[in-house]
Amino acid sequence: MGKVVAVLAAATLAAAYSAAAGAQQKLVVAGYGGSFEDIMRQEIFPAFGKQHGVELDYVAGNSTNTVARLQAQKSNQQVDVAIIDDGPMYQAIALGFCGPIQGLPKDDLYGTALYKDDKAVAIGIVATGIMYNKKVFEEKKWAPPKSWADLKDPKYKQQLVIPPLNNTYGLHALVQYAREGGGGEKKIDPGFKTFKDQVGPNVLVYEPSPGKMTELFSSGQASIAVWGSGRVKAFADTGFPVGFVYPSEGAYALLSSVCPVAKSKPHPLAQAFVNYLVSPEVQTKLANSYGYGPVNKKAQAKDDPNVPMPIGERAAKLIVIDWDTVNQNRDDWNKRWTREIER
């Protein structure tokens, strides 16, 4: 009998050890770099890691990098949870990279946050608009920008920064100029023409890196840019004198979104982490630290005097682009962009 008890005790101990080891297995989260990564590491990860006894690993990259990574690791996914902009998220879902989310508190979330079949959920609403250096504008006695058309003004020659087309902010700008020229997502030529002839000459660099973007402003090389409200708020919170404008024609909606990565052996905590990101506590943190318009109705968001947040009426007025059309054409547009605009 003693032998059986000893064997059972050993088996129980082994099971407990293996459960502890499993809990310690890293949860790999892929998401944006720069100030977003800082907030994730400093404000979002610690409480979850402590509560669940898990170490979180962060892989930084823009949305198209993350989708490319999921594609490259198709047969052996290393990422457990992916945070991606809405456009590339539709691609990730179509390619089968996202598993359905379980236990989503739908009654607490705004309808705009939800994706078909719960394959993803938004974690924050961002407005794509215009960032400018208030100090430089005051010194030069320039009025703050009001319109997308202002970016064509020759006084901004070599002062303007726009992320490239494989970045959602750059894509929003291209669609806006196509619409202004009588086209749109289904007729993109006018957008390319405006970039080539009128906006391009003012561009210092098409910069994808958030760190480089803030560097270009800090060093005085750039004074105006197309960027997202969340990024601008994080920059303004460092004390740098930047302002953010919702252009008169409308700012564009970007839904920062998350999905649990579909894999043969999903991490047991992937679902819990996705649900944690849309909880009122985390939504309040992402709103107040990063400037996201919250997707949870119970979040407490304070508006920011420097960078008006996409909440209330401002959120309701944001322009949503036709992602189905964009995603069908995006590869061709990227090639054309490299050929014609960013030579």
Automatic annotation (TrEMBL):
InterPro entries in the cross-refs: SBP (IPR006059)
Record keyword Signal present: yes
Coiled coil segments of this chain: none
Pfam families named among the record's database cross-references: SBP_bac_8 (PF13416)
Signal sequence, start to end: 1-23
UniProt entry keywords in alphabetical sequence: Signal
Domain of life: Bacteria
TM ranges: none
Gene Ontology biological process terms, A to Z: thiamine transport
GO CC annotation, single: outer membrane-bounded periplasmic space
CDD domains: PBP2_polyamine_RpCGA009
Name of the protein in its database record: Branched-chain amino acid ABC transporter substrate-binding protein
Originating species: Bordetella genomosp. 13
